[in-house]
Amino acid sequence: MELPEKSQQQLFDEEVYRLHDEGLKYPEIAERLNASYNTVKAIGERRYGTYHEPPKAPLKSGAKPQDWNQIDNDTLPLVKDAIRQLQGDGTTRPRRVTVFAVERMLHLSSKKISLYLPRCLAEIRRHEESQEQYWAREVAWAANQLRAAGSPLVWRRIRELTNMRPENYRACLPYVATYTDVAMLNSVYTRQ
Questions:
Q1: Residue 117, burial from CB neighbour count under 10 angstroms (0-12, 13-18, 19+)
Q2: Which residues contact 94 (CB under 8 A, 6 or more apart)?
Q3: pLDDT for 1 beyond 60
Q4: Helix (H) or strand (E) holding 79
Q5: At what angle do helices 37-48 and 26-33 cross, to 10 degrees?
């Protein structure tokens, strides 16, 4: 069985394609084949489309994939240190431990710990406290400050340091015992 011979048009088209693949432009191909530029261009665009160069590889853009487990492991010591700083060392005023406070301290974008860092989130949750517990830590800090300065331990001075309302002070009193010693606790309770 013989293959049918190619027509003149098919042979001409193949020659245009071959010359184009060699890197010649349509005006040069038209000149070589002694044909009209518009004809050569129409044949080339029928095969290659409007653009004749192969498409470039797309640039890699957008968000890069992250290894969140590794980031979680690397961030955990920083989170523990941030928690220690927020709780204070007795001389610096304590701050309430929350996910937002830790994220802000570590300059992480909002919700990053909650969404992607489960170990860090668990560590923060272990140290999270209610507002009343935080106020109790603040009262203990203020009492230590007053004791170190030799000032009398009275509600007015604690309030000056903490800027706490009387109802908040009363709400936090049940928790004060966990943050201070018995002698200070007795004086805090008796001098409200």
A1: buried
A2: 86, 87, 88, 134, 137, 138, 141
A3: no
A4: helix 68-87
A5: 120
- Phi and psi angles of residue 188, each rounded to the nearest 5 degrees, phi first: -70, -40
Q: Which amino acid is at 57?
A: A
What's the rounded Cα separation, in Å, for the pair 90 and 85? 10
Residue 30's CB is within 10 A of a number of other CB atoms, namely 20
Lookup result for tokens 């080339």:
44
Which tokens hold the place of 167?
């109802």
**Segment 28-50, tens digit of pLDDT:** 888 888 888 888 888 877 766 65
How far apart CA 184 and CA 177 sit, in angstroms, is 9
Cα–Cα dist 73/75, whole Å: 6
